[in-house]
Amino acid sequence: MGSGSDETDAVTYIAAIDQGTTSSRCMVFAEDGRVVAVEQREHRQYFPRPGWVEHDPQEIWHNVQAVVAGALARAGIGPRDLAAIGITNQRETTVVWDRRTGQPVHPAIVWQDTRTDQLVAALAADGGQDRFRAATGLPLATYFSGPKIAWLLDTDPSLRARAEAGEIVFGTIDTWLIWNLTGRHVTDVTNASRTLLMNLATVDWDDELCDALRVPRAMLPEIAPSSVVYGTARGELDGVPVAAALGDQQAALFGQVCFDRGDAKCTYGTGAFLLQNTGPTPIPSKAGLITTVAYQLAGQAPVYALEGSIAVAGSLVQWLRDNLGLITQASDMDSLAGSVPDSGGAVIVPAFSGLFAPHWRADARGIIAGLTAYVTKAHLARAVLDAVAWQVREVADAMTADAGLPLPHLKIDGGMTVSPILPQIQADALGVPVVRPEITETTCLGAAYAAGLAVGYWPDLDSLRAQWRASASWQPAASAAEREAGYARWRKAVERTLNWA
Hints:
Elements: E1 13-19, E2 23-29, E3 35-42, E4 54-55, H1 57-75, E5 82-89, E6 95-98, E7 108-109, H2 117-124, H3 133-136, H4 145-155, H5 157-164, E8 168-171, H6 173-182, E9 186-188, H7 189-192, E10 198-199, E11 204-205, H8 207-213, E12 222-224, E13 227-232, E14 241-247, H9 248-255, E15 264-268, E16 272-279, E17 290-295, E18 303-310, H10 314-322, H11 332-337, E19 347-349, E20 367-369, H12 377-403, E21 410-413, H13 422-430, E22 434-437, H14 442-455, H15 461-465, E23 470-474, H16 480-497
Parallel strand pairs: 1-5, 5-14, 9-12, 15-21, 21-22
Antiparallel strand pairs: 1-2, 2-3, 4-7, 6-8, 10-11, 13-14, 15-16, 16-18, 17-18, 19-20, 22-23
Helix pairs in contact: 4-5, 9-14, 10-12, 12-13
């Protein structure tokens, strides 16, 4: 496929839908991985109560249709020019809709939403936070989809009756989009592995887990590989194979061609997500990480990963801008933070809604520590970037403890990596080189790669490996003594955040 030598051959492309926490976009890729066109549109965030975060599933679907049409128009192509389309999505966000009408029965409950905290605490009262970890690879947390479904059904008994009758169905965002594109009720293994309902060993819904969370199995989608044709699209994409679905962080791992055991990447967006490929066997975490499915190709066994999810990364820059007014736009961050050599002893721990990996402490709250009269807003800006890097260091250390796989270097991507400062701070915090690829839109690229593999647009993983190229790399410049002193100060500050709530 792709460009043929005969001038009469049609040039075909791959498209990817990236349905994220704040926006939806569509990207069109050429055979060499080059971005041909992009269209993006934000959707509204609803905060009906403290700790509650909701999206409108219909708004998301309408926006997805709009960005697909816009991207194709920008590329000057139509559906017939697409070999396939892949989907990548915000994970854990929970949608429940009527099987007959396709209408949502409640707003989508977003992954950040903490309304299930009491339900999660009740589940943990019998067996602790790791009650389901052996089966799912996950701790009990408000983060995951299963408790969100249970909350919905517990809150409205009529919904529970309809769910048990199979009249209403559940899906993460990938399932919601595939349903609207093809009419099929299906999810992929990466998204299913984030529900607290899928058994990592069987790669199927687990009756014991469904019973414990009181989620009727009748409402759950079929689980399929990440790279396979789910169906043929209707509407704007009429006739195009819908051929991949991956949770956003797994898609970034795939787009960074982390196909070998030990390969790792970190995506710096709203939060930061470090994933390491651990091969064909799931590795249980004893150090506070998540064991998850990295991807599954059609006809092959799943590949697993360890993941460290950090709740606050890019959103800390937004907080500095919107809540404190220390910068007027995010792009001011680098010049302000870069105007000082270090944070002047100040440490910011952004535990705004508790700490995620590797701590999993819902009782933690954010602090600014180490203040003296010397500290300026420039030092606080630098402390923000330090906070991101130290959080990643904590997760990297946990991965080494769990898997015993050395981290020779770290591939990075996401919006924050355009910073000229953060990658160097990260290399210094880790003590290993940090590498950024030429194509930084690795989430969309991963979904495109998986879709292309499913339809033979690309022949194999080696052809994708050959396309990866670095655009920049950063070597550690700090001494080991400086690095460990800074890390010790960070850990001391983290201790101060605990037992607040």
